[in-house]
Amino acid sequence: MSQAMYFEDFYQGQTFDSETSYRVTAAEIISFGEKYDPQPFHIDETAGRNSFFSGLCASGWLTAAIVMRLRVESIKVAGGMIGAGVEEMRWTKPVRPDDKLRTQSTILDVRKSASRPDYGVVRSRTTVFNQRNEIVMKSIVNWLAPLKKTT
Amino acid sequence: MSQAMYFEDFYQGQTFDSETSYRVTAAEIISFGEKYDPQPFHIDETAGRNSFFSGLCASGWLTAAIVMRLRVESIKVAGGMIGAGVEEMRWTKPVRPDDKLRTQSTILDVRKSASRPDYGVVRSRTTVFNQRNEIVMKSIVNWLAPLKKTT
Asked: Is A23 within 8 Å of chain B by CB?
């Protein structure tokens, strides 16, 4: 999908697969962990082994950020994808060094915005898989999409 | 709060303020945007001015990551803060270059984990303020905390 999409282009049941998969490296896990989530299992392999996760794993917020990238690349909203909020997000399995992540997004429903007459709200579910097709994250997020100009 | 906290240490109504505030720079906004949320209003000042946001602003996922850091620093869970999921997250105002963010977290409720007998689930609301005391983000997240060992 290379053309910019407007509110009217989205419909319930529509699906979007990520265009690529994203390989998560140990270096990226540690660098993100040191900046934003400095806990033993996100910044050190040895400490990770002795933790709840039995090894180094990505901060859930790194996974969420990667998922945003995959979603932005595969769903081109006119003017940009403006987040209206997260309804739910769950991390179902640890993301490990060298995992390759891909996303499947499904549009759950669409409605016009009450507060912004030029925009609609698109509600979507995203499922995130690793290279073994295990689900590592699930989320329901809403974003705004502009209405086509009729003038 | 410098001592590691167990499930039994958390209670409804308990509050935690971030220990510091976090200054978000234009460089960090752009660097995060280029990596994870490459949209005009997160990577370029001029493009940002002509967008929905009327200026450069932080990806909501950068704000969420910074909030994780402030939460990890101010709530020291024994063994680390293990995210069990997000129930709700809303970005209520753009985060701009040089904004200083701080968090207030309140424990909403606590319950033992059905699936993991050694852990409890702590449900918390976090409100994120900028330097003008405007709310820029609100979230409800759950995390696991280990039970004190009784043996």
From this structure: no
Q: How far apart are CA A36 and CA A43, in angstroms?
A: 10
Model pLDDT for residues B17-73, shown as the tens digit of each residue: 999 999 999 999 999 999 999 999 999 988 888 888 999 999 999 999 999 999 999
pLDDT at A94 over 90: yes
Name the helix (H) or strand (E) containing A70: helix A60-74
Complex ipTM value: 0.95
Q: How close does chain B come to A79, measured CA to CA in Å?
A: 7
- A65:B69 CB<8 A: no
**Contact (CB<8Å) A52/B79:** yes
Tell me the pLDDT of chain A averaged across its residues: 95
Cα of A63 to nearest chain B Cα, Å: 10
Of the candidates A7, A60, A53, A4, the one whose C-alpha atom is nearest the C-alpha of residue A32 is: A60
Euclidean distance between the first and final Cα of chain A, in Å? 25
Q: How far apart are CA B122 and CA B24, in angstroms?
A: 28
Q: What is the pTM of this model?
A: 0.96
The secondary structure of residue A93, as a DSSP letter, is S
Q: Strand B22-23 and strand B100-112: pairing?
A: antiparallel
Q: How far apart are CA A103 and CA A75, in angstroms?
A: 11
